[in-house]
């Protein structure tokens, strides 16, 4: 019996465990203090009413002889694929229905899609990064190159012709930095990918937070992307499906490598290894794209946007550098007083009772930076922002 030894190469992630320990110790020492968590990467607003209603109706249907649904199409029901097609068409991006594949979330597909590619490919991930991209490739044994980013380039890495990568991860708007690429910047990535015969894995989980017209909502807004990119998206952030589980992956039919058509290959993979997302969940997801669904969803997104603005305004007032917060629920700030990420974590907890996430936990280039999220309660976020402002001004 031989095991996949690459699992031994995974670096244990103590980030959220260490945070939990520090917070518990603080709470024990100061039972009277109210701790505000601005570190969470999970949504908090409940599902929209139209989503809940659609799921209720679907459950009722399932309990009838006529309305019962057994195995569905592995790639998703046409009603949901067509709704997504309409969502893209609404902003000028034309997709064929059979280029859309419904998944149980972005995280699974980000890992599963790698199964199409040989392990003898080089992967380019940004630093700092959503840790999943790294771990998915470590366990397969692929070589990873880190694209270093910094305050100078606004934490948006650009292609470097001296680097040869086959698989390129782009997450825009980014987790953890909140930074988002303009169309012009993404054009450079598409050109690089085409020149190097590479494939871009474009994580669009936060596209719904974009309000600036210069920024791309989809990689397929860029000419040539259909020949070099796969887009992975999710209902988690747009509609609070983190616990409900639904996403989608767009694989254009024009994408070919090594004599193979990636769309056909992905269909084959899905029909072989996946049995689809529950009918009830897909009905709930489709409700997101109805007129009332979109209005309710925007209401929830605005709630988070306001939180982001409250935090950003507080940082503006005390001249702290940050990116994100405008087209993203994440605010990535430079630790004041040249503090390191963990130093600032302790300082923020001690002085403000606020919990965030140390930037260094997302990669070396995150050292000296810190992530705050807009997914918290509005009133508590206001209190936290006030405390942060007062404490930093007194620093
Ligand atoms: C939250 C998030 C996702 C969504 O993952 P799901 O599995 O769909 O919940 C994808 N990518 C990034 C970077 C995220 O932060």
What does this structure look like?
There is one protein chain. The protein is an alpha/beta fold. Helices cover 38% and strands 15% of the residues. The chain has 12 helices and 15 strands. The protein has helices spanning 15-29, 49-62, 78-89, 106-112, 131-140, 183-195, 235-239, 262-273, 279-287, 291-317, 341-352, 378-393; strands at 36-37, 100-103, 122-127, 143-148, 167-171, 199-203, 229-234, 247-250, 256-257, 260-261, 322-324, 330-334, 354-355, 357-358, 369-373. Strands 2-8-7-6-5-3-4 form a 7-stranded mixed sheet, with helices on both faces. Helix 2 runs antiparallel to helix 9, helix 3 packs parallel to helix 9 (279-287) and helix 10 runs parallel beside helix 12 (378-393). The chain is globular. It starts with 14 loop residues before the first helix and ends with a helix. The structure holds pyridoxal-5'-phosphate. Pyridoxal-5'-phosphate is lined by residues 105-107, 130, 171, 175, 203, 205, 234, 236-237, 242, 247. The site of pyridoxal-5'-phosphate has 13 residues, from helix 4 and helix 7.
Helix segment tally: 12
Task: Give the C-alpha Rg.
Answer: 21 Å
Order of helices and strands: HEHHEHEHEEHEEHEEEHHHEEHEEEH
What is the strand arrangement across the widest sheet?
Answer: 2-8-7-6-5-3-4
What percent of residues are in strands?
5-15%
Enumerate the distinct ligands. pyridoxal-5'-phosphate
Catalytic activity: (2S,6S)-2,6-diaminopimelate + 2-oxoglutarate = (S)-2,3,4,5-tetrahydrodipicolinate + L-glutamate + H2O + H(+)
Keywords: Aminotransferase, Pyridoxal phosphate, Transferase
Binding site for pyridoxal 5'-phosphate: 71, 106-107, 130, 175, 206, 234-236, 245, 275
EC number: 2.6.1.83
